[in-house]
Design brief:
- The protein has about 375 residues and is an alpha/beta fold.
- It folds into 3 domains: about 5-110 and about 320-350, NadA-like (Rossmann fold, 3-Layer(aba) Sandwich), CATH 3.40.50; about 115-230, 3-Layer(aba) Sandwich (Rossmann fold), CATH 3.40.50; about 235-310, NadA-like (Rossmann fold, 3-Layer(aba) Sandwich), CATH 3.40.50.
- Helices cover about 45% and strands about 15% of the residues.
- The chain is built from 17 helices and 16 strands.
- A 6-stranded mixed sheet has the order 7-6-8-11-9-10, with helices on both faces.
- It is globular.
């Protein structure tokens, strides 16, 4: 059973009264709680959130930035994280013991994070050690569970973001001969390729089949990629790029490195969420862009830059469905429950896991 299924069965559900309220009433209730709690409440909002939620965010950003900002809110007693479960876990790991992190809807998970659970990872590590001995350093994308971060921290590795993956992989190779990159194979492959590592020297670990897929002798393998992916970014295809090139010959294509190698290679630019936002922000008026990332963010960029011609690289793309679990009714319920002294959906990482996970995060933050 994955995290999403567990949460479905074990967490309280949204009271019916919030389902019948108008948007105006829900918005007013959110405002009332924010006004009454003031700086005792901090509301971070991920870039992929719906407009109905992000309008109330005290800060916008990617998952790590928001977790760091949460830790710096010294007056905040409660952090209501508008994102997904692994993001709230990271915020809990980095904040003080007397601060509490809540998630408006515990069903807001991440399919990528669920693609690497701790049991699979420990089995994989044991088998990889028999093949490669002690020559592997594990790295994990921050889009992973606290348990995976803890595993990486305990084995001398670190977390990475899409912004700093290049530097972290370079650092990892100063520590060991090869790396294991969890859980997103595409970010790992794209980053390692940009660093000059040939594709044939990258193997893929399949956690379902429990086998290593490789094209060269084991001693030539430099990067072991976990067979995981982002369900949103994997839906951008080579066909999408060919269609944009045909329909808009002068349009630039910019994508997130969670997209496949083939898509990144055919695009004009690739980079993190902040990279994409800044590239559009700094582009001249009249420029044209096809963006390959989450649809809520793309729509927001379109609204904020009417002076440019912007489209989604995949016109049939849907928003991140689990991120969209955080909606206005759940936000209002979460805040009012908190204000009434009956908070819902506390995110609390086990102390031992948090200590090891923080080591992985700190190794990255020391190099930021």
């Amino acid at each position: 059973m994955n995290l999403f299924e567990t949460m479905e069965q074990s967490t309280p559900t949204l009271p019916d009264r919030y389902k019948t309220m108008t948007a105006e009433e829900l918005e007013q209730r959110v405002k009332n709680v924010k006004d009454s709690m003031g700086t005792r409440l901090f509301l971070p909002g991920h870039h992929y959130q719906k407009d109905e939620v992000i309008q109330f965010a005290d800060a916008r950003g990617d998952s790590l930035k928001l977790a760091q900002l949460s830790a710096n809110q010294h007056e905040a007693e409660a952090i209501v994280f508008c994102g997904v479960h692994f993001m709230a876990e990271t915020a809990d790991i980095l904040t003080r013991e007397d601060q509490h992190v809540y998630l408006p809807d515990m069903r807001a998970g991440c399919s990528m994070a669920d693609m690497a659970n701790i049991t699979q990872t420990e089995k994989a590590w044991e088998k990889l050690m028999t093949k490669f001995d002690d020559t592997i350093l594990p790295l994990t994308y921050v889009n992973s569970t606290a348990a995976i971060k803890a595993f990486v921290g305990k084995h001398g590795g670190a977390t990475v973001t899409s912004s700093n993956a290049t530097g972290m992989i370079e650092w990892a190779f100063t520590q060991k001969e090869r790396i294991l990159f969890l859980p997103d194979q595409h970010l790992g492959r794209n980053t390692a390729y940009d660093l000059g590592i040939p594709l044939e020297q990258m193997a893929v670990w399949d956690p379902i089949l429990e086998e290593l897929i490789h094209k060269v002798p084991l001693e030539e393998v430099k990067v072991i990629l976990w067979k995981g992916h982002c369900s949103v970014h994997e839906n951008f295809t080579v066909s999408n790029i060919h269609q944009v090139r045909e329909d808009y010959p002068d349009m630039k294509i910019i994508v997130h490195p969670e997209c496949s190698r083939e898509v990144v290679e055919l695009s004009d630019q690739a980079g993190s969420t902040n990279y994409i936002i800044n590239a559009i922000k700094n582009a001249p008026a009249g420029s044209a862009w096809a963006i390959g990332t989450e649809m809520n963010l793309v729509n927001r960029i379109i609204q904020e830059h009417p002076e440019q011609h912007i489209i989604s690289l995949n016109p049939m793309m849907c928003p991140c469905l689990t991120m969209n679990r955080i909606d206005l009714p759940h936000l209002a319920w979460s805040l009012e429950s908190l204000a009434d002294g009956k908070p819902q959906n506390l995110i609390k990482v086990d102390t031992e896991i948090a200590i090891d996970a923080k080591m992985a995060l700190d190794r990255m933050l020391e190099r930021a």
